[in-house]
Design a protein that fits this description.
This protein has an 8-stranded parallel barrel with strand order 1-2-3-4-7-8-9-10. The chain has a two-stranded antiparallel sheet with strand order 5-6. Helix 10 packs antiparallel against helix 15 and helix 13 packs parallel to helix 15. With 546 residues, the chain is of the alpha/beta class. The protein is elongated and about 115 Å long.
Length: 546
């Protein structure tokens, strides 16, 4: 089977009191799918403590899998549910270590109970521009979790780039002013002090040596600062700038592919060619040295974010366990989904476009990392699914493991039902069909999960019927323009058919009308006193209410 239709369990902490008993832990969440007409459920994890439920593995295997025949995937913790989720693209040492341990813990425990996948939001770290407003410890690490001071020692050219090259702009972040301005100020102060003491201008070689020593002190100060606990405003930006330059110089494939894909997306969204869009943005080179390129953070920050996630998936230090070993042993991929963005900063998320993390999954290996598409999330952060799918490489659909289905709303989280015969049902089909042309569901040996993310207990039935019809026609490779009335449920025998509707009317046509009529006795010759008292006899006589 290629397509599995499922539902999400929902969250204990946001549901009403009448339903909490059905969502109190992973076992009850799994059981909740029984009445939904599906045999797959996405369990929404709210805390790793849910794995500590007594006899969880035994109950899952005996009651859920064996007796009910239900399989499941895990939606990992997310900030959208109020959890301090793992930030795998953080360059702050303490968070890098915490995030790695947490994802290892979740992967291991999910594999132990037999999950089909673990889904995470691709990036829920503070948006890059917002870091200027955030105080953070300057305890930076590279993408493998190595102290940044060691990373700089291995890449001395980066320190040269900061002090002698075009990387001088970083000093504005560290010392509050441009490096050249700072050194000119030091030169002026040294000159004045020498003149006051000696009464003459200082020799140029003396002044040059003093400036050289000042620059050396600044270099040492920077190397010490990036591995300190001292608080600064957004020191993570320094790490991102330096890793970006490292990726650029080393022709890193993530840098090349993600920057290129990002530019293509924004150009197509603006209905411009790539050259037209770059000209408009005054971008002449894909280099962090270029001011205009550097300011367009939405182009290059995703590449650095992806590099940090790549580092977690390919650890170089025994301190960090390799998650691929868990994934390979259990055949349970890590799946990346676009997160929701805050209102007003919809496009500032570090890594949000499936087009971008397709290349990350390719780099990590599709056996270990795959994709999830959530059109509601994508639309809410101005990612047009049709543009994303059109720019996907020809094989990308095969590696879309999960689709979160629901009304394609621009205001997330909505999680509205998919009504039979609605524009939304047709839109979803059109997108899934385009995705199928790039491999989504073409290979019957690859499992794909289409999960309706619930919005409430009343939203399931029609959404499941809508999805079943979508899958039925997908498997026939029916183009959107060739869909028959059966797709919308209005063919004979379908839920919305005229025959079904007329039958429903006939079933109720002779039901009593007690309490529904208010008529005067003068007109109908039976007791209508209550009607005349309510309305007034004079109005009835004047036929004002006929």
């Amino acid at each position: 089977m290629s397509y599995f239709i499922g539902v999400s369990s929902g969250y204990f902490f946001v549901t009403g009191p009448e339903e909490k008993i059905h969502l109190i832990g992973l076992f009850k969440k799994a059981q909740s799918s029984i009445t939904k007409g599906v045999n797959f459920i996405q369990l929404d994890l709210e805390s790793v403590s849910e794995f500590e439920e007594p006899d969880l593995k035994k109950k899952i295997e005996n009651e859920i899998k064996e007796k009910l025949g239900i399989t499941f995937g895990i939606h990992s913790e997310t900030k959208a549910a109020g959890v301090e989720a793992a930030e795998l693209d953080s360059a702050i040492g303490i968070e890098y270590e915490r995030a790695h341990k947490r994802i290892i813990d979740i992967l291991g425990k999910s594999a132990d109970i037999g999950s089909k996948y673990v889904l995470i939001h691709s990036s829920e770290s503070d948006p890059f521009p917002m870091l200027a407003l955030r105080t953070q410890p300057a305890d930076l690490v590279d993408f493998y979790g190595k102290p940044f001071k060691d990373f700089l020692k291995e890449n001395e050219w980066l320190v040269e780039w900061i002090t002698e090259g075009k990387g001088k702009f970083i000093w504005v972040e560290v010392i509050g002013r441009n490096l050249d301005e700072y050194l000119n100020l030091v030169r002026s102060e040294l000159t004045e002090a020498y003149k006051l003491e000696k009464g003459v201008e200082p020799p140029s070689d003396w002044l040059d040596n003093r400036i050289k020593k000042e620059k050396e002190q600044l270099r040492r100060r920077f190397e010490d600062t990036v591995s300190s606990k001292a608080l600064h405003y957004g020191p993570e930006r320094w790490a991102y700038f330096l890793i970006a330059k490292w990726m650029e110089k080393n022709n890193d494939s993530l840098w090349a592919n993600i920057v290129k894909a990002s530019v293509e997306f924004f150009a197509k969204r603006a209905k411009k060619s790539v050259d037209e869009w770059k000209t408009e943005k005054k971008i002449t080179v894909y280099s962090i040295d270029d001011d205009n390129f550097r300011d367009a953070h939405e182009i290059w920050v995703p590449a650095v974010s992806a590099k940090y996630i790549y580092g977690h998936m390919n650890p170089k230090n025994e301190k960090f366990e390799d998650p691929k070993k868990i994934i390979k042993k259990s055949n349970m991929p890590l799946v990346l989904e676009s997160p929701m963005g805050g209102r007003g900063i919809e496009e500032w998320l570090r890594l949000a476009n499936p087009l971008q993390f397709y290349y990350l999954a390719k780099e990590v290996g599709f056996d270990y990392m795959q994709l999830a598409l959530d059109f509601e999330h994508m639309l809410s952060i101005r990612l047009d699914p049709e543009i994303v799918i059109s720019l996907f490489p020809e094989d990308a659909g095969k590696f879309v493991k999960v689709i979160h289905a629901g009304w394609p709303a621009t205001l997330a989280p909505a999680h509205f039902p998919i009504q039979l015969g609605s524009d939304q049902q047709f839109y979803l089909y059109k997108m899934y069909y385009q995705l199928r042309q790039k491999g989504f569901g073409k290979d019957p040996t690859i499992d794909h999960f289409i999960v309706f993310e619930r919005g409430g207990p009343e939203t399931f039935q029609e959404s499941i019927l809508s999805l079943r019809n979508i899958v039925k026609f997908l498997e026939k490779d029916t183009p959107p323009e060739a869909l028959t009335p059966e797709f919308s449920g209005i063919e004979t025998g379908q839920i919305a058919s005229m025959e079904r509707q007329l039958t429903t009317i006939k079933e109720h046509v002779e039901e009593p009308l007690k309490g529904l009529l208010a008529v005067p006795e003068e007109e109908y010759t039976f007791l209508g006193r209550v009607a005349t008292e309510k309305v007034g006899a004079e109005k009835w006589k004047k036929e004002e209410l006929k």
